[in-house]
């Protein structure tokens, strides 16, 4: 006689898993299915418009991206309005261009909808969000409350920054084809573009954890780091004119780039969030040990969010590393060559693999793991940008 939790269906699937799957499907409402229909319609429209520029691999990527977007919208409900809004704004920009890059001098494009305008709005609202989160956190300590208007403004500004950034990337993609019809490309080909993608991903991941764990007061930590990245983006734009759209170099003219780079930066974004949460946890532990009041959540809550972030980041970084190896085999004839970028990617992967092992298997908690996450930021930063600055190898096409 089998116990209920081990009972199997006729198809060999555990009954409790079937019940979970059915309960998830039943939990989907009309808005969820409408969102799925909208994304499918957008994918179909995109394929009908640019099918002549797509091979079979890019078609697969398009529909896989649509499916992932639907699942993401079902899992993280705000994405049901975020994605359609960004698509609508980007499509409006396409209409304003009317197929001619010279129309970029029109008022709406010049100040709102061109890629560079949208990205500058993204940078501005990241700074606005930072000040709102910090001011809201200080006010929460003074008034001894959990939420206030300033924290709510921080969340709103964070969402606006993500919308502006993602819209800017979509419009930049179209602009690359307007500038060079035979050399247009997805905007993840240089440090400037991937930094914008990084800011979008980091904001969205933080907003997910903020909503799930009710940790608005951690926004100041995460957006402090994002504001530093904004400073770099602005410097990079002014001093190197990195915002100009350049044709792809031969090494990057591959459909692998469309899946390898985004997966990589989900990992980078998660690791950077974890580092900022590590600083927050160390601060919370210090205040708790001193018996002093703090606006931050309990250190155990912060560590749980940090663990979730590292787990997600590790998953996507692993996927990105595997995709990178496949791309290397396709481009260079070998999966791994111990190029400096590959070596440091492996160091980053190993660093967080050990972190997860120590927490899940060895049962470590507290200050050690918090410090480890903070130090991990420097390891990750060197792998991301330090290698490009100081080392040379097969990946030397992304230098500063």
List strands and helices in order, with pairings.
Elements: H1 15-27, H2 30-50, H3 56-75, H4 79-97, H5 107-113, H6 115-143, H7 149-179, H8 191-213, H9 219-240, H10 257-290, H11 299-332, H12 340-360, H13 367-390
Describe it.
This protein has 400 residues and is mainly alpha-helical. It has 13 helices and no strands. Helix 8 (191-213) packs antiparallel against helix 9 (219-240), helix 8 crosses helix 10 (257-290) and helix 11 (299-332) runs antiparallel to helix 12. The longest helix has 34 residues, at 257-290. Residues 1-13 have low confidence and may be disordered.
- Report the strand count: 0
Alpha carbon gap, first and last residue: 67 Å
Computed structural class: mainly alpha
Percent in strands? under 5%
* Count of runs of 4 or more consecutive helical residues: 13
